[in-house]
Amino acid sequence: MKRIIYTSFYASLIIISLLFVSCKKKNDFPFEANPIAKAIKLETQTITKQQLDKIPEAYRVSVENGGTIEHITYKSKNYYGDGADNEKKANVYLPSGYDKADKSKKYKVLYLMHGIGGDENEWGMKDEKSLVKKMMDNLAEKGDIDPFIIVTPNGRSGFDPDPNKTYLAFYKFGEELRNDLIPYMDSHYNTYADRDHRAMAGLSMGGMQTINIGIGECIDLFGYFGAFSAAPTSNTAAVTASLLKDNTYPIYYFYNICGLQDSIAHSAHSSAVKALPALCDQFVEGENFMWQEVKGNHDFGVWYLGFYNFAQIVFK
Q1: Under 8 Å CB-to-CB from 19, ≥6 apart: which residues?
Q2: Helix H or strand E encompassing 77
Q3: Taking the alpha carbons of 193, 194, 196, 200 in that order, is the dihedral positive or negative?
Q4: How many CB atoms are closer than 10 A to CB 186?
Q5: Pairing of strands 224-228, 253-259
Q6: CB 28: neighbour CB atoms within 10 A?
Q7: pLDDT given at position 35
Q8: Using CA atoms, how far apart are residues 91 and 34, in angstroms rounded to an integer?
Q9: pLDDT for the residue 161
Q10: Is 14 exposed, middle or buried (0-12, 13-18, 19+ CB in 10 A)?
Q11: What is the mean pLDDT of the chain?
Q12: Cβ distance 252 to 198 under 8 Å?
């Protein structure tokens, strides 16, 4: 009897673990509430000076006559729901010198996604205080990068912003990208309207979206990818390799970073990407693929560093 009870108990644990790491397409909730609460708490904690100092101070200061940030509203649908009309908000970073009237000057675009506890403002891209803006302005001014546009949208394709109610709305964002957000950006801004000049990246749930949606569903829309501490429901390397089996679109770069002390994402993110070069010949370590482990947890100390590194790799 004890053996049967123990067997049943361990079987239950295995089932719960599988629910935790699998990407669900049906209306059940793959996470327990506590891991979500833990992730949100870590996401929203204040970044320390020690963490900030991983990024050179010269790239964290304001630049005179730097870029600008605009706030947009675009029409979308309630994709995780009844499909009713919806209005979504996003923030747009425009490099210094951007001139809407100059249609001859085109810009590349990075779609930068947030985590489960955030929205379009989680990356702080709201005003002149934005660290993303400061890094971009300095990277461009110092000649480290060719300037590009950044968009930070709300990654939930549903009405209710409560992550405990619309968790699976994150998985519907590919439809919004394809049908609404990218067409809006390409029609309202001076962008290159092709995958060769588009990138997708994100933290935690946004990293999952980059893997599952950017690579898994929208490889025809993006050529560059970045995942920062990708969430536990990210596709495994084997799944991604299978999805790309017949892919003919070039993958220009896939950058990954995760904290070694990250109890939420490290194991899952490792499973999602570390074996990709061995399983899929479209990823070559040192050429178009990087897995970077750093000291750190599930927080912006890792993610801002990831952004700083990725900004210098993308579109090269």
Answers
A1: 28, 30
A2: strand 68-77
A3: positive
A4: 15
A5: parallel
A6: 9
A7: 77
A8: 30
A9: 58
A10: exposed
A11: 89
A12: no
Tokens standing for 240?
Answer: 């991604």
| Residues 26-69 pLDDT 10s | 344 444 447 788 888 888 889 999 999 999 999 999 999 999 99
* Predicted confidence (pLDDT) at residue 303 exceeds the cutoff of 50: yes
Q: Could you tell me the CA-to-CA distances from 121 to 90, 91, 276 in Å, in that order?
A: 8, 7, 32
Return the domain boundaries, the chain. Answer: 57-313
284 contacts: CB under 8 Å, gap ≥ 6: 277
Give me the CATH code for the 57-313 domain, please. Answer: 3.40.50.1820
Q: Which amino acid is at 250?
A: P
**Cβ neighbours of 278 (radius 10 Å):** 11
Structure confidence at residue 163 (pLDDT): 55
Q: What is the spatial distance between Cα 221 and Cα 283, in angstroms, rounded to a whole number?
A: 18
- Which pLDDT score is estimated for 16? 35
Question: Are 218 and 177 spatial neighbours (Cβ–Cβ below 8 Å)?
Answer: yes
| Rounded Cα–Cα distance for residues 6 and 12 (Å) | 10
